Description:
This protein is of the alpha/beta class. It has helices at about 95-100, 150-165, 175-180, 180-190, 210-225, 240-250, 270-280, 300-315, 325; strands spanning about 5-10, 15-20, 25-30, 40-45, 50-55, 55-60, 65-70, 75-80, 85, 90-95, 105-110, 115-120, 130, 140-145, 170, 190-195, 230-235, 255, 260, 285-290, 320.
Amino acid sequence: MSVHQIDINLDGQQVKSHFYECNGVMMISALFFKHANVLVDYEREQQTIILKQNNTTITFFKDQYEVLVQNDSLIKNETLSVAPLNLDGKIFIPFQYVVQNLRMSILEYSPPHKINLMTNHSARPLRAVFYKGSANKKMAALTFDDGPDEIYTPQILDILEEKKVKATFFVVGQQVRWQPEVFKRILREGHEIGNHSWSHPNFIELSTSELKNEIKSTETEIRSHTGKSTTLLRPPYGFITNSDIQIINELGYKIIMWSVDTLDWSGLTNEEIMSIVNRDLTEGAIILQHSFKSAPGRLDGSVKALPEIIDKLIREGYEIVTIPMLLD
């Protein structure tokens, strides 16, 4: 049984997913439906896959043909022609069955070449997602992801202290646990903190419970040092679905992306990083850099570029602020 990749046009946007065909039935990764603002969860002990949207809940049972569909207080038990299956670590469920029960519309269906799907749901998640601040204010925010670590974070903090500049650090929960003293220094020197998950997974590949656990575990770790919660969150890699946005917003976070990606994680030189900043910098910019040693020397160019970025911003009349100040 071969698993293939497919691009599905969902409400006018291309979404990649995985599928296979069994007895004429298209079986798709359950997590695809997160893009359609469906909550997708796994109950490991019960071996169930649960999809929720508005007042409809569909409960599949792995390797079983039985399925339960609940609308408000009405529950119906039905039988599938193909049972949900775990392949390559992904749970696959019948595509058209879910679409029908969640009242979506298939405008065109010819897998694997083209599927055009509409959700038909007017209600959209509160999209508190920010890529930059106001274009009417000459401000910019420096942000650093993935730390704290014992190599690059202290160097970055030294530069920020020397330049008298405050930044926003989107921290990984397990890194805070491993490097508490560096984290305390970030706090002590007055920088802002954001949540960047516990273990830096791709949110698109997480169930609802897994996503909440990544966020809440990090928040607990942050609170243990600060005594308060943060309202800022940046998804690892910037990858996110509509249901993720809904969950994160309901947990009380603003989702912070970026407008200037320095690509420093790829090992660029300071000259290459400055070229990106010179090209993409505009009023309200959120500048993305990193503060974690993924490989020896990988961020040397980023650290070397940082004072040049700060000097450029000051020279061009930018006020360098934290994310809350930028969005105020």
